[in-house]
Design a protein that fits this description.
By secondary structure, this protein is mainly α. The chain has one domain (about 1-55). The protein is about 60% helix and about 0% strand. It has three helices and no strands. The protein has helices at about 1-25, 30-35, 45-55.
Length: about 70
Amino acid sequence: MKLTWALSALVVATAAFFGYRHLQQDGDLRSRLKDSAPSERWIYDDWAAAEAQAKENDKPIFALFRCVP
């Protein structure tokens, strides 16, 4: 059981390390994907603004996380 946890932690740490290095080498991900704010109703990449608007309107936050290659 301990071996399983140790191997799992090693795999996750290795993936995170190489994934982070990949992002650093590729530069600004948003400009590379040509991503802009989808519409005026969306809050893109600003968690504090999303929290403020959710409190103001008394609504929950719908957050979308995506993995990009």
